[in-house]
Design goal:
Elements (H helix, E strand, L loop, with lengths): L1 H27 L4 E4 L10 E4 L3 E5 L5 E8 L16 H12 L3 H12 L12 E7 L4 E9 L4 E8 L2 E10 L4 E8 L5 E8 L9 E4 L5 E7 L2 E6 L2 E5 L4 E11 L2 E5 L2 E7 L1 E10 L6 H12 L4 H16 L3 E3 L10 H9 L5 H18 L25 E2 L3 H5 L2 H4 L3 H26 L9 E2 L12 H4 L4 H5 L1 H10 L2 H22 L1 E3 L4 E3 L10 E2 L5 E2 L6 H20 L5 H11 L21 E2 L24 H16 L6 H13 L3 H15 L14 H14 E2 L5 E3 L10 E8 L3 E8 L2 E9 L3 E7 L2 E7 L4 E4 L8
Parallel strand pairs: 28-32
Antiparallel strand pairs: 1-6, 2-3, 3-4, 4-5, 5-10, 6-7, 7-8, 8-9, 9-18, 10-17, 11-12, 12-15, 13-14, 15-18, 16-17, 19-29, 20-21, 22-23, 24-25, 24-26, 27-28, 29-30, 30-31, 31-34, 32-33
Helix pairs in contact: 2-3, 6-19, 7-20, 10-14, 13-14, 14-15, 15-16, 18-19, 18-20
Amino acid sequence: MKLIIRVVLIFQILTIISCQDNEKKVENKIENILWYKQPAANWMQALPVGNGRLGAMVFGDAQHERIQLNEDSMWSGGPDWGNSKGNSKDLKELRKLIADGKVHEADAFIIEKFSYGSVKKSHQTMGDLFIDFEERKIKEYTRSLNLNKALATVNYTADGAKVTEKVFASKPGNVLMIQLETEDENGMNFKLKLDRPMDNGHKTVQVSSAVKNEITMEGMVTQFKGVKDSKPIIVDYGVKFQTKLKVKNIGGTVTSKDGQLYLKGVKKATIYLVCESSFYKKEYAKAANEHLNKISQKSFESLLQEHQEDFSKLFDRTTLNLGGKVLDSLPTNLRLKKLKEGGKDVDLVAKLFEYGRYLLISSSRPGTNPANLQGIWNKDIQAPWNADYHLNINLQMNYWPAEVTNLNECHQPLFDFIDRLIERGRITAKEQYNCRGAVVHHTSDLWASTWMRASQPYWGAWVHGGGWIVQHYWEAYQFNKDTKFLKERAYPAIKACAEFYLDWLVKDPKSNTWVSSPSTSPENSYIALDGKPAAVSQGDAMSHQIIAEVFDNYLASAVILNINDSFVEAVKKKRKTLRSGFQIGSDGRLLEWDQSYEEAEKGHRHMSHLYGLHPGNDITSKTPKLFDAAKKTIAYRLEHGGAGTGWSRVWMINFNARLFNPKAAQENISKFLKRSVADNLFDMHPPFQIDGNFGFTAGVAELLLQSHEGFLRVLPTLPKDWSHGSVKGLKARAGITVAIEWNAEGLKVLKLSSAMDQKKEIVYLDKKVTVELKKGKEYRFDTNLKSLQ
């Protein structure tokens, strides 16, 4: 009997311990869910879903639902707008104006001779799906977006019966799925309608319903308020597309009339929505019809499972827990409101980090176009800044988190786009400047145009878009050490930019150095000697930092690939006498231009002369004078109101991370959340620009782990408010996957696993150790970096 009692007691104790362990596991697993108690009142409150190509914004209105639709190739125009304007003779004249100090004449000349002016050719919305219900009494309403499952859900009761709406965009199925289900025994009565906004008074689509349970919306992207060479034009051609919808119902009936579907007494409605465009497929209408017929044979449940398995393979690689009180019982908009009123919510910071990863997976997948200025989520025919590809920071910032947060696959669309830019950029370089290699200016679009487009020199007369964007090739190699990728993808692109710069640079007789002329510092201007603002100069800091980086990355690639020819020698020679992009002024700040000019806008949003601090790696603790100058440069900008836009603020977070300034990082995180985050957590430039979301995620990762100096820095810039937490799945350069746990005392456990055999130095505070890592094996270290194996 005693033995039985002992066994029972042991079982009870083990059960209690097991329950406690499970409770701890539940505590540690933080659900990444955004949720609200009311439908979206406007677009910046709606919730995004996407599969890289197809996207939607879910408003969640229980009475008049709107699901705004997007597809990533919805652009007007085509690749036939030319490749260049101006020629080498014009370039020679322009350089003479600059050398003679006639900078205002040079500003006017560069736009007149080389620029097509302010081109308006926008990415556009695909349209809207409207779901209009018969009048009902709505109660117990919630809507949510589960980031882990990539699923938007709306729950409520209608006339006392439970109703559920689910929406997701599947990459494997290439389909947008919506399911509506009710427990009302009488079912639901509602209408389905597809539509698209007018283009300056012109109808843009034809909608029909030849089949009783289908709707077809066919159209072509136009731009009746288009502009080329600063002159209004009618862009009456562009991508053609067909969007098709099919509904399958359980219970009730479906009828069609005037291009709309009417559902009565339906217990469950499953809606399949597909789109094919002429950009991807020549016979797009046929493809859309065949795809819809095939995909609609699958059930909602099987497509959802397939979608979530696909999505979780990417999303679940990296998780962040910043500890603190998890306030998931409070709606997301109220959590944000409390934070903006001065409260603290580190878990919301962690969710915003995860949100950036969610958005990148949802807007950039292999085989799609890269994420544009709004990802893929755009409600307009004429989007802000055309939702195009800005290469003076915005497109690059979109992809800052790709490697470090373990999403290399999401980086691939950018590389495909760069290859297209390089191809067209070779033509522009030859025709416009008589240079070899490839040039890419400030802005591009779906058609990978590389010519200059600017009505003002300070924001568009910039030739270094290609030089900056190919850094992403080198970074991808650094993180993954894929020699095949380096040889076949990265090296040709980097070499194309190096070729251009070899021919582009001119000798400055005063300093006997090679300089970039004409040159501008992105979107900024200086006060010329006559007291008036000017943009063009004979070399600015960022230009030379980028050129130096291109040369250095090219030479490093050549060594790895065992290439040693006359071109390598030519790059080495010109690199030695390239003007430095790092000059310190009398006040200790880095100079932005070739001389110590007064700035026209002292608090400018761009911090271009700090490129070498981030995303470059020339300014580190090993360059103390530049390190200190960078601090003073940032302080000056902020004193004069800098970092006013969302993306600029998150760039500050990345700068602070590299400068090991946790207090400043925390301040900028707080200001970003208070000033630049909407209720749906989209970044407000304002208006909406997605780069701020991506830059924020990259900045958080940079605070926790750095590897750009050739070794691993663990918790280099940990904000005080993040007193305890954990992160797993971050990537360091050289193929190392990192997990970190910490508490108020500091580092608790560090875990490393490497994709290859290698030695690596690890630094935590003043502790330093070199470890030997074997491929595929996990290594654990304590607070003193001592092995826990």
